[in-house]
Amino acid sequence: MDQLLKFINNLNAAQRAVIIGGFSVLFILLIGLLVYSNIKAQDKKLNYTIATNLTKNQVMLASNELEASGIQFSVIGSGDNLTLKTSKDFVNIAKIKLVTSEAATSNHAGWEIFEKSSLGTTNFENKVKYLRALEGELSRSLESLSGILRASVKVAIPKETIFTERKTDPTASAVISLKPGVFLTQKQIDGIKNFISSAVSNLKVENIQLIDQDGALLQMSSDDMENQKSLTQNKYKQKLEEDYEDKIVALLEPFVGAGRVVARVSLDLEFKKRHIQEEIYEPEGTIRSQQTTESTASSTGNNGQTGGTAGVENNIQTPDGANGNASTQSNNESAKTITNYEISKKLIEEKSNNYSQVKRVTAAVTFDSSILADVQNRDEFLASIESVVQDTIGFDENRGDKITVRDFKFLNTTTTGNQQVDVNGNTVQSGASDGDVVDTLAMVKSILRDFSEYFQYLIAAILLFVFYKKFIVNHEVVVIGENGQVQKIDKDGNPIDDKFIDEFMSNYEDEFDASTAQGRLKAKVKSQILNNLQGLDEENAAKYEILIEALDKEINNSPEEIARMIELLLTEGSGKFK
Predict the structure, then answer these.
(1) 3-state SS of the chain: helix, strand, coil percent to 5?
(2) Are 241 and 265 spatial neighbours (Cβ–Cβ below 8 Å)?
(3) Among 23, 163, 454, 480, fewest CB within 10 Å belongs to which?
């Protein structure tokens, strides 16, 4: 204790300020680390999720159940999107408690509603229960989708009737509450509608309406659908053009040179699906039936017979030859055939299921003209390139395709910032890509996040070690003896010989100033004088300092004479200086 008091009393103001400041900073850091560790530990106790997307009523029921079981929990969130959390030790027990409690029961009644049926249930009640169960099951299914917080489906099934004209189609509607920051795409909306339509008999997709929690209709307008369709078609067209360009460049680069050819392709696409149906009737086909009709007719007459007056005489036929006139007889035969053929019809139906059809292709290819220096026949070389490009894009002259091949002088590769740009204007990747850098940073952040709790203890240990080495291990204690003699001791209580240290430092400086004899002499004289300054009062010390300055001046002016004098003094009477 006495040594500590002596140590404190012999400290000057600067040393005391440094020690007090160091202890203060260290104390504040330790307190801050302890508080931070306590807060982190408290948060860690309640960071295990029990249930999410709970309403206020469900949280009230769950809190009663957890409090009755003595389980600590916390409620995070706002509105009807609440989350329950607890510690790691109680997370499994809390989940079991909630599953068996009323808080876990869904607001939607499903098929379990038929488990409580009675014998006196009427047909109307069963229909109502079926409708409720169907709506509840659909609502539960929609709530299981990601991005949907809650859902409520309503189905309207019309009453059955025997009159066809009075039949109406069933309809359905749904209120879908989305999670914050979630928006449904048109594909997701169509999927939900088709899901509801397939669950209800005779329900058409166009008879289903969806709205969100704000009452907005979840359906893209006709303009939005057209814009979306146009955007999709443009992306598809751009992708096809890039594929053609990559094929051309990949085919020409091996003999033209990397970065010395540029290709641009423009496509004219038709986004229409064709459905052609054609009926062809053949003039002659299979005979279905045939009818033949034959008829025969005969007639007899007298040649030269004239007509007489009307009467009985004229109506009586006279025998042949009685009047000398010759008689004639004629026979007529006819045949009629009716043939019925089967109607021979050929139905040709053609459907085009392609998303698009290429109407016209236009390609432009440019390459560095410097490669033509080694080409003997320029026209033949250009024709060969054009032929290769034609085969690459599937050139069709009837379609109106066009290909242009030109040679230009390319500029050298330029550098923009830290990126190299080739003749195509594309960035040349060199070294590690941005994706690798991002992955490395993400990995470092993940490691820091996982071990952040241990870094605080590491920092505290480093500060303690630095303080120990700076102020405790290497500190010298100044002790004043009974006769007023000043003595320095180290941390183990051993006296420190300043003379030995000064001689050591003098020798150390002498190693760096040993180029001249004058430098060595100055160092030795300075060491001897400094050894004699210890233990003197301020007045004598000032005298010696003046003497040192005068000697230094004389040494610089006449070094040889002073050197001989000091050498004589050191060899014969060095004891007089002590």
Answers:
(1) 50, 25, 30
(2) yes
(3) 163
- Measured distance CA(316)–CA(318) in Å, rounded: 6
Asked if residue 210 lies in contact with residue 188, where contact means CB atoms within 8 angstroms, the answer is: no
Q: How long a stretch of residues is the chain?
A: 578
Instruction: State the Cα–Cα distance between residues 428 and 3, nearest whole angstrom.
Output: 72
Tens of pLDDT, residue by residue over 296-311, are 777 666 555 555 555 5
According to DSSP, residue 515 is labeled T
d(Cα 329, Cα 318) in Å, to the nearest integer?
17
Cross-strand pairs, 280: 346
Token pair for residue 512? 């760096």
The residues, ordered by sequence, that sit 6+ positions from 533 with a Cβ below 8 Å of its Cβ are 541, 544
* List of residues 6+ apart from 122 with CB closer than 8 A: none
Sign of the C-alpha dihedral computed for residues 16, 22, 23 and 28 taken in this order: positive
Distance CA 212, CA 218 (A): 7
328 or 89: which leads in pLDDT: 89
Within 10 A of 219 (CB to CB), how many other CB atoms are there? Answer: 16
> For residues 14 and 17, what is the distance between their CA atoms, to the nearest angstrom?
5
Is the CB of residue 300 less than 8 Å from the CB of residue 332? no
* Calpha distance 527→507 (Å, rounded): 9
478, exposed or middle or buried, with CB in 10 Å at 0-12, 13-18, 19+? middle
pLDDT in tens, 425-435: 455 454 445 55
CA dihedral defined by 178, 183, 185, 186, rounded to 10 degrees?
60
pLDDT tens profile 255-286: 888 888 999 999 988 877 666 777 766 666 66
Residue 217 has what DSSP assignment? Answer: B
Reported pTM: 0.38
3-state secondary structure 262-293: EEEEEEEEECCCCEEEEEEEECCCCEEEEEEE
Give just the sign of the alpha carbon dihedral 251, 255, 259, 260: negative
- In terms of pLDDT, which residue wins out, 156 or 79? 156
CA distance 33 to 37: 6
Query: Would you give the distance in Å from CA 229 to the centre of its chain?
Result: 23
Question: Span 352-361, mean pLDDT?
Answer: 76
Core vs surface per residue 366-381: b (16+ CB within 10 A) or e: bbbeebeeeeeeeeeb
**Cα 341 to Cα 286: distance, rounded to the nearest angstrom:** 6
Backbone angles phi, psi at 337, to 5 degrees: -115, 130
